[in-house]
Specification:
- The protein is an alpha/beta fold and 314 residues long.
- It contains 13 helices and 9 strands.
- The chain has 2 domains: 112 residues, no CATH class; 158 residues, 3-Layer(aba) Sandwich (Rossmann fold).
- 39% of the residues lie in helices and 12% in strands.
């Protein structure tokens, strides 16, 4: 690795290992991070060679972990944020409040599913949270098929898709355009909306710029209202990454690549979840208590005989 000592005095530097590990311990103490059996920072750092370790430490310092309480707060915030879109904020408070309450009383909650829907899709977790956190009655929390059937029988209602992460946009696009068997008919959300003009909202906790752009093209009538938007530059492998000091971007990316090659994480051009740059080469450093996004770098979550993950995928 190049010499890192030749810097201007005020230039940002790589984070100090002792300080990063102390911060991790603090996060555990205040229960923002789980105990070592779930997330083990020290053992994860031992995966790296001596010249890679300073970069691993810095990347650990930017890692974001969202425990259940934080996840619930993000979901609550994203849903409440819809009030600014469905209520007339220029109207008297009582009128705007009534509009929001009408929305809450009529909204249907559903979720995106994968190309081959299965019980492990994160949408199922968020369907439960819609009842527990948002207080939506269970009879209005429906599968995609049941949602389409309800709209065909009863007419337009607002539909909110709940989810944790909008990454590439593939999963939501497939859900929006897929033909489902709904009652005696086969129909997609996109197709039904042309006949039953329901309003559609998608409220992932986190949304990448890439995912937003993909859905702007594939599902332009869906309003995306994420709790947080993630810029492209948050990626540890982006040329203008804000995950590294500017002078360390090239070295940081190289350290990740070398460690990933040694651990056996392939270069698939982002086509696989264990691509060394993450799915769709999004290169993120984040996880939720219930799951790790495919866009997260596999050096954080992948399990191999000779590679210990920082956090395990559930």
């Amino acid at each position: 690795m190049p010499d890192r000592s030749a810097r201007e005095p005020d230039e940002p530097r790589l984070l100090d290992e002792e300080q990063v590990l102390a911060r991790c311990e603090y996060f555990v103490d205040v229960q923002l991070w789980p105990r070592e059996p779930v997330l083990n920072a020290g053992r994860w750092l031992d995966n790296f060679l001596a010249d890679e370790r300073p970069y691993a430490v810095h990347l650990l310092g930017s890692f974001q972990y969202f425990a259940d309480d934080l996840t619930n707060a993000l979901l609550q915030g994203a849903f409440q944020g819809l009030s600014r879109r469905v209520a007339d904020l220029s109207a008297p408070v009582a009128v705007a409040y009534a509009q929001w309450e009408d929305f809450r009383r009529s909204v249907l909650i559903t979720y995106p599913t994968g190309e081959q829907p299965n019980p492990t899709d994160s949408g199922h977790t968020f369907a439960r949270k819609a009842r527990q956190v948002l207080g939506i009655p269970e009879q209005r929390i429906l599968s995609p098929e049941a949602t389409l059937g309800f709209l065909q029988r009863h007419g337009a209602r607002p539909v909110v898709f709940v989810d944790d992460f909008l990454g590439s946009g593939n999963q939501f696009r497939e859900t929006w355009l897929r033909d489902y068997k709904a009652g005696s008919a086969t129909v997609s959300f996109a197709g039904l909306q042309t006949r039953v003009p329901f309003s559609a909202f998608y409220i992932p906790l986190m949304a990448t710029a890439r995912g937003r752009l993909a859905l702007t093209n594939a599902a332009p009538t869906v309003t995306i209202a994420a709790a947080h938007d993630l810029p492209r530059e948050l990626s540890a492998v982006h040329p203008a990454s804000i995950a590294w000091p500017p002078s360390e971007r090239v070295n940081g990316k190289r350290a990740i690549r070398l460690a990933s090659e040694r651990a056996g994480f392939p270069d698939t051009g982002g086509q696989h979840v264990e691509d060394w740059q993450g799915f769709a080469t999004q290169g993120l450093a984040m996880a939720f208590a219930h799951s790790v996004p495919d866009a997260t770098l596999p050096i954080f979550h992948a399990q191999r005989d000779d590679w210990f993950p920082l956090v395990r995928r559930s």
